[in-house]
Amino acid sequence: MKRYLIKKPLVYLIVFILLLIGSSIQPVFADDPVLGPPPVMPQQTESELLEKPDIVVFDAPYRVYLPLTTRITTNQVVSTDNRQSVLDFYNQHYANQNNPDIAWTGSISSCNAGSTSAQFKESILERINFFREMAGVPGIITFNESYNQKAQAAALVMSANNSLDHTPPDNWTCYSSLAYSGASSANLALGGYGRSAIIMYMRDYGSNNGAVGHRRWILYPQTQEMGTGDMPYTSGHSSSNALVVFDSHMWEPRPETRHAFVAWPPPGYVPYPIVYPRWSFSYAKADFSSASVSMTKNGTAINQIALEQVQNGYGENTLVWIPMGLSSSSAWPVPSGDEVYRVNVRHVKIDGVYRDFTYEVTIFSP
User: Fold this and answer.
1) CA torsion through residues 360, 277, 75, 141, sign
2) Would you give per-residue pLDDT tens digits along the chain (366 residues)?
């Protein structure tokens, strides 16, 4: 019988490859940050249909029109045209924000979702409204206690199963109908909770988040109420957040915003730590199917601009791109001085008419 001998170097190579593959598969419970896809806007029911007044408001100097404007009382929105105002706002509500303890009262082993401290929730709310006010949308979000409860139930299920699902199956550990309701109407994150989860949603990194749907729900102008559920890391179970973003106001008339569009980063001065590789430009009901983007940095053209696939169904219709060859998970480069980015968004179809938009973002080091 012919015998086949495997040389030792080949054995070592095979073992090395298997170890390399094994080391690349990291368990979710290692608390690595993970974002799933964002929740898709639900179908509007007949009872939710609204009579929309035929109102257009000229919005100088961008020479575009608001499709619909209804004035509501809002907190004062920061002026991004003023560098010092932005710096003060950033330091007060972001960089130097208090960091209260979560004080979670639950237990995964007994499937008790528990609750978190009022101060902890307030810090999350402040982070949400910070981003909204910077973007020029009403920073009036409040937490609805019933939304908090279903968000907490959803966060429990995600941590208990070390996985994310907007429609969790009923055989999942700690499953409940309340958790299902929360998961199906929420942004979901693993490996992050509290304010860090809000940053994850605004970054919207990963190959499955080219539409920046989580960010679009954070900045959706009509939203007035949200709910948060948060789980800290426990042995064998990842931390998690569920942020309920569907409220009873989502079908109401669009409120007044700083500009007719909502962009991130927004026009004006923006500290570089809150600038992310994926830039976005949202306009209600706009058709971006043939739109294009060009940019300059301090007057020099940026040649590397990667457009993401246009995907509707997450808040307002949005165009997304990544400049300068960055990856979605990159950190924005630290600027050596104030850097002025001029953005040109062209061929946006609004109410059957093609329009162009131009604005400037000045990125600075706080």
Assistant:
1) positive
2) 444 344 444 444 443 443 333 333 334 445 678 888 899 988 765 444 333 333 222 232 322 222 222 233 335 579 999 999 999 999 999 999 989 999 999 999 999 999 999 999 999 999 999 999 999 999 999 999 999 999 999 999 999 999 999 999 999 999 999 999 999 999 999 999 999 999 999 999 999 999 999 999 999 999 999 999 999 999 999 999 999 999 999 999 999 999 999 999 999 999 999 999 999 999 999 999 999 999 999 999 999 999 999 999 999 999 999 999 999 999 999 999 999 999 999 999 999 999 999 999 999 999
| Radius of gyration of the chain, Cα coordinates, nearest whole angstrom | 23
| Cα(136)–Cα(262) distance, integer angstroms | 7
> Measured between alpha carbons, how far is 313 from 185 in angstroms, rounded to an integer?
13
Cα–Cα distance for residue pair 272/257, rounded to 1 Å:
23
Return the residue matching tokens 């400049």: 323
Task: Classify residue 336 by its DSSP letter.
Answer: S
State the pTM of this model. Answer: 0.84
Q: What span, in angstroms and rounded, lies between the C-alpha atoms of 92 and 77?
A: 14
CA distances to 55, 76, 138, 168 from 50, rounded to whole Å, are: 14, 28, 21, 32
The answer to whether residues 262 and 359 touch, using CB atoms and an 8 Å cutoff, is: no
- For CA atoms 107, 112, 113, 116, the dihedral sign is negative
Distance separating alpha carbons of residues 151 and 148, to the nearest angstrom: 5
Residue carrying structure tokens 């209260």:
100
Preceding omega of 267 cis (within 30 degrees of 0): no
Spans of all domains in the chain: 34-39+79-244, 262-364
User: Which residues are within 8 A (CB) of 72 and not within 5 positions of it... i.e. 6 or more apart?
Assistant: 138, 140, 255, 256
CATH superfamily of 34-39+79-244: CAP (3.40.33.10)
- Equal CATH topology for 34-39+79-244 and 262-364: no
- Cβ neighbours around 252 below 10 Å, total: 17
Q: Residue 164: what are its φ and ψ, rounded to 5°? A: -120, 140
Architecture of domain 262-364: Sandwich (2.60)
Residue 356 in contact with residue 345, Cβ under 8 Å? yes
